[in-house]
Input
Amino acid sequence: MTGSRFKEVAGITDTQGIVLGLALLAAVTVIGWTSPSIALDLIEPPYLEEQIAAGVLPPAAQRIPEKARVIDVVGMGRETGRYGGKLRMLMGDPKDIRMIVVYGYVRLVGYDEKLNLVPDILEDLEVTDNRVFTLRLRKGHRWSDGHPFTAEDFRYFWEDMANNGELSPTGPPADMLVDGQPPQFEVLDEWTVRYTWQAPNPAFVPALAGALPLYIYAPSHYLKRFHIKYASAYDLKKRIDAARVRSWSALHERMGRMYRPENPDLPCLEAWCNSTGPPSTRFVFKRNPYFHRVDAAGHQLPYIDEVIISIGSSSLVAAQTGTGEADLQARYLRFDDYTFLKNAEKRGRFRVSLWQRGEGSRLALIPNLNVEDPVWRKVLQDVRVRRALSLAIDRREINQAIFYGLARESANTVLPASPLYRPEYASAWTQFDLDLANKLLDEAGLDKRDSDGIRFLPDGRRAEIVIETAGESTEQTDVLSLIRDTWLKVGIKIYTRPTQRDLFRKRIYAGQTLMSVWSGLDNAVATAEMKPHELAPTAQAQLQWPKWGQFVEEKGVVGEEPDLPEVRRLVELYKKWNISQSPSEREAIWHEMLKINADQAFTIGTVNGTRQPVVVSNDLVNVPEEGVWAFDPGGYFGRYMPDTFWFRGRG
Amino acid sequence: MLLYIVRRILIMIPTLLLTSALVFTIMELPPGDYFESYMAELQAQGEGVDKAKVEFLRREYGFDKHPVERYVIWLTGMLQGDFGYSFEYQMPVADLVGSRIFLTVLVSFATILLTWIIAFPIGIYSATHQYSWGDYGLTFLGLLGIAVPNFLLALILMYLANVWFGTSIGHLMAPEYIDQPMSWGKFISILSHMWIPVIVIGLAGTASMIRKIRANLLDELQKQYTVTAKAKGLHPFKALVKYPLRSSLNFFIGGIGGILPEVVSGAEIVAIVLSLETTGPLLIKALQSQDMYLAGSFLMFLALLTVIGVLISDIALAFLDPRIRLQGKSTR
Output
């Protein structure tokens, strides 16, 4: 048996790569922590003083777990902070309340700044053969209402939620099934649970660390009152009527939403918990007095007392930010707002930094390999055509003209910030070479042209491509107008057709769209431990091969089986990753998949690493000047730990 | 009269039924449903979607059922006072709309009052001083109100208010007062924010109101009885206000019916631009995201108010103008 432990004891011999990383980091965070002696030096947040004095809250030493997670703020190159202040953020949609969970990024295990997986809520995580996962909680860890956080909360989720037909009509979450088989769940003691699968499940840990996390626990002491198994029929009926829902499962779902924490009564483990009931346009999140992270100087994190999310209209966010109405803002700010924001820096008392966006390509041209038209399908499935189209894009011009030269000219692949990055992936078929492009198209059988210089398809039609966009930004049309000029030089004429997002997808799924414009890989700062689902057909939502993706997603019930050998290989590799045993194996799989994608140009990338303006109040300390703005991994700000941000001179 | 009212009320029932069927059909027409556009939206932002949760909601709200079945469920629910559930906000429609109705009515009433206060004197002046410089000048100003796009004016005023008076951008009050109980400070804050939407929305309505008053009053002023009254030496004010103005107001009373739904929905576009906490943005957003029950129930509510408003107008007209009342009788 190859066993390994994510724990504070260093010097484990049979640890595996990623696990080693985890173990070492865990070691860094926990070593030197002797709870009783430091507990005496804990500094109480003034925000809670009144409640502590009144006896509503116990002193800090009793609020944090026996082994709290110690954040070495100074070691991160930041300043130890001071308590206090309210952090204001602007949002444009009622659903955006989830950003507190995304930005907060409190997970069982999570990615740190260097993309290592580290235990966060968990004290440690022991993985054996990628099959047996033993999760150890922090003894004395409590929910925000002071109730202990224990194995019961995991049992409740697994037995009473995931395996309850009414709450989970589709069964347990997909990432908890291996070949359709659920794990065996055991409670080892009050603070330890174990999940055992028959076969390896490498997707489990990354899913726990996702920006949209796989929740495998729930505040059982609170939710039981809404569960038919635990609540008395009379009470439950009264609650259902009061909430005006149709069933107990709807009530349970509504009250227990952790990713969209609108229910102020729902206990949480986040740094800040909601205190405002909907409907509202201003949600106030107050510090969680039982939060499990502390800094080395004895402050219980977070430093900031309250986070305030105002929900207005998204088009006003830039203007509001410009008048200093936000302390930390990036969402709904676009690169074109940069000059306005820079201009407003003085008046609004903030600074603007430019982070790098985390997509594989700011916008990619995506040929639909499953297009209905049989002639076009054959042409687009010809790798020479895709390569030629990629070669006929002047990426330098796009970068200079539209992104002020601040982007990187690249194929749609991982960014240099990812450990999987190799220059040859980014440069594959991206040099501007019209001669080679013409030669490739001639070879592909499109060698006849009409008097306008437009090539003929094998059936005699002109090679005219309608490129559809979701009609969401002028940036897309600007880039396309540049591409139109250079593609004309290789005898391909394009027309742009803006549609509306739902229609856009529908048409692609049905194979009516020849080519579309969308962003590239969502997660381009991937590590080998993350699922490579974006590189192979795995879902209908993938615009380059919707029908193949649907085939894999629905296990062959609908869709079409991939018929290109390279695509089949990708599916094979993806399946191999899902049962892989070792990090080195996963890394090899990732590289092969990246290589195939780069070489085959299934999607045609333009530029990536474009800039995301991040507005930071002059008073706010510890926000990094540079970072990667990406949902996954790490939830936008999440990986940079907003609980360590603090206000200088605001009480 | 009583019979007339009863008959009118009975006719409202099939009208509303037909409206509800229309509303539901039109909302079903676009491809996909809320959950699809929800997933597409999250994917557009590069975010993940919890598919199991979406599937749960889809089943919970009957999206696996036939549209006709859903229509019946929706309709019977509404009859029992259950307006359905907003997917976007994840809460009952009634609570959601209810939370915004007060501010909406406040803004709308202020707007309507402003429109009247400006339009009446100008309309009367224009009619009595037809083709004078004053008539031209005021009409020009009024037409400017129609011609300038509302949203543009809103943006400009908002910017100026921020630069000159330091009023916070958007919303109907400073952020710190949102969700706070009413207080003097909050009241002042609302007033300092409210004038922008009131002016912007009000100006657009003013011009057409001026033109209507002017035209209707002009008709009356040329009639024999007015000339006679003036010739007999009736006080000029009485000769204007007591007779011609009163009889020219039928259009105004008839328009009251239209005010009722307007008061509740507010001006949608301006409210979105200014990010007001009124019902207008709710409705537009719901239509965009295919949040069926929110949009549908809200439209039905507006339809109901329209029908009631028209009824009220008709009754008021008959009540106020003996000519209509008596003519009605003679033809019967």
